[in-house]
Write a structure and sequence with these properties.
single chain, 285 residues, 2 domains, Porin
């Protein structure tokens, strides 16, 4: 083996030993300076060494480090506050409802002076959606379907062999809801609004027969109209669920007065104005 080759190998061994010693000393220094959270004296020592490091680094370096830490802190705070805002309306601002109940005729529909009564009792289904502008004020767009039977006297006057009849009312309205006691679990609200109403009056007769030999109902006469109408009512809500009483789901029960400007009885598609009191029970979010 030549002396040059021997010196080269010796140099490599020395170099590797030196690297290992440096790594060992660095690891030892790290372990000795790392504060132990269970030992207050070590934590204090670590803080002192950090303070000493800042002092040794000079006022310029210490000021730069403090400025960087302040910038990071303000950035984190800004990101957090910015993350809490998700646009003008969050999901909690959206409102919805669904319910069903019955209808009672009033006013012109029960009068006898103009040839009435024109409708009897029936049922209704209501669904709506909108926005909570505050805990006290909500605006809903509502769809309602009302189905009322026709009285026997009106069916007999219609002729054409009719044996039954019904009046269907479909409405699309805008209705604000004002909670009188929004912070209470049990509250009272007032509501009212108006919009589009479609009413159809149908007379039916039983004829024989279908494929299986049963009598079937066929329409003998019908007329309909489209017009504006309005409603006003009072309701009761009961908040449901929520660990701290903060649930958005409520049980509601309400009664409204509905007025529909349907055509006069002198017209071919009218029986005069329509007046009802729908009573509805349902859920609201």
């Amino acid at each position: 083996m030549s002396s040059h080759r021997w010196m080269s190998q010796m140099w490599r061994v020395c170099f590797l030993c030196g690297v290992a010693m440096l790594a060992a000393s660095f690891a030892s220094a790290q372990s000795s300076t790392s504060p132990n959270p269970n030992n207050p004296s070590l934590v204090a020592a670590g803080e002192s060494s950090s303070t000493a490091f800042l002092a040794d680094s000079g006022p310029g370096d210490a000021m730069a480090l403090r400025s960087a830490a302040a910038a990071l802190g303000s950035g984190a705070g800004g990101g957090q506050s910015g993350g809490e805002k998700h646009g003008a309306f969050s999901m909690s601002h959206f409102a919805a409802e669904a319910g069903a109940g019955f209808n009672a005729p009033v006013g012109n529909d029960t009068s006898t002076g103009g040839g009435g009564p024109f409708i009897t009792w029936g049922g209704n289904f209501t669904a709506g959606a909108g926005l909570h502008f505050s805990k006290r004020f909500t605006l809903l767009g509502e769809f309602q379907f009302m189905d009322d039977k026709l009285p026997a006297s009106l069916i007999a006057e219609a002729g054409d062999g009719a044996t039954s009849g019904d009046a269907h009312i479909i409405s699309l309205t805008a209705d604000p809801v004002i909670e009188l006691f929004p912070k209470w679990a049990n509250s009272i609200y007032v509501t009212g609004g108006g919009g589009y109403y479609h009413k159809s009056t149908n007379f039916n007769a039983q004829v024989c027969c279908d494929f299986y030999g049963y009598a079937v109902s066929v329409n003998t006469n019908s007329f309909s109209s489209n017009q504006a109408g309005g409603n006003f009512g009072l309701g009761f809500t009961r908040r449901l669920g929520g660990v701290y009483g903060d649930s958005t789901m409520k049980l509601f029960a309400e009664a409204r007065y509905v007025y529909i400007h349907t055509p006069a009885i002198t017209e071919t598609n009218g029986l005069g104005t329509t007046e009802l009191i729908p009573v509805t029970l349902g859920f609201r979010w």
